[in-house]
Specification:
It contains 12 helices and 2 strands, in the order ααααβαααααβααα. With about 260 residues, it is an all-alpha fold. The chain has a two-stranded parallel sheet with strand order 1-2.
């Protein structure tokens, strides 16, 4: 008798589950018919949903923590380490954090002049350089000129990959906008100078200074600052301590720009 009463009590729950299952089947059937009747529209909607989900789950909280906390391993560091492992090559990371106030002004000025001349005044994007880059690349039919600001470069280093697909670029723009609104310019530059690559496995200006000049970054002279800034675009191809044509020419360009600005 008790077992029968128990079964009667469970019956409404079972009916509810069956009803819910039927509704799901009906919804799934309607969705399938919609996709079948409008495949292109359905694909566009699915694509937009995926993009919106990726945007919603970007590392916003990590960026807020950067106000007081230094970042750990970056996306670029992981990618280079994984690549070295796949190729069976040794990979040893060299990185030593240094505060913004310990970095020589010449080094800061040289990097800003070399990589992002309007860094202190823009909101994360240099629209003039962006337009010039598009025109130049269109004329030559290839990616001959970049237009990434220091903030954009930092975002890519911390969270993204070197790929240039449209979704990755969209993420970069959104995160750049967010970083500029959460962090001060000096904090952005401090993180940037401590995480960018300056050679195979060499990350940050302190590690670069020790690696190339056997001294702390705080002791760098003006010429050494120019040389380090000169190799940022291709740190695996050029060395700051070698008098190559590239390093000498680019160092001179950076020095001329600095002097023209009274630096």
């Amino acid at each position: 008798m008790e077992e029968m009463d128990k079964r009667q009590e469970e019956l409404p729950e079972v009916k509810a589950e069956v009803k819910q299952g039927s509704r799901l089947l009906i919804t799934a059937g309607k969705l399938f018919r919609l996709i079948k009747s409008n495949p292109i529209k359905s694909l566009i909607i699915c694509f937009l949903v995926i993009v919106l989900l990726q945007i919603a789950f970007l590392p916003y909280s990590d960026i807020r923590r950067l106000k007081k906390e230094n970042p750990g391993e970056t996306a670029f560091m992981r990618e280079f380490a994984e690549k070295a492992q796949k190729e069976g090559k040794p990979h040893r990371k060299k990185q030593y954090w240094i505060s913004y106030r310990s970095i020589p002004k010449d080094a800061i000025d040289a990097v800003v002049v070399a990589e992002d001349g309007t860094f202190w005044s823009h909101d994360g994007f240099d629209w003039f350089e962006f337009r010039e880059s598009i025109e130049k690349n269109f004329e030559e039919g290839r990616a001959a000129r970049g237009a990434s600001t220091i903030t954009q470069q930092l975002v890519k280093n911390l969270y993204l990959s070197p790929s240039k697909n449209p979704i990755r670029k969209l993420k970069e723009w959104i995160l750049t906008w967010y970083v500029e609104r959460q962090l001060s310019k000096t904090r952005i530059l401090e993180i940037y100078l401590n995480v960018i690559e300056w050679g195979a496995g060499v990350y940050g200006i302190e590690a670069a200074s020790r690696y190339y000049f056997d001294k702390s970054a705080s002791e760098l002279n003006r010429d050494e600052c120019m040389r380090l800034a000169a190799i940022i675009p291709s740190p695996r191809k050029h060395r700051a301590d070698v008098d190559s044509k590239y390093v000498l020419r680019r160092s001179k360009i950076i020095l001329d720009r600095m002097e023209a600005r009274g630096m």
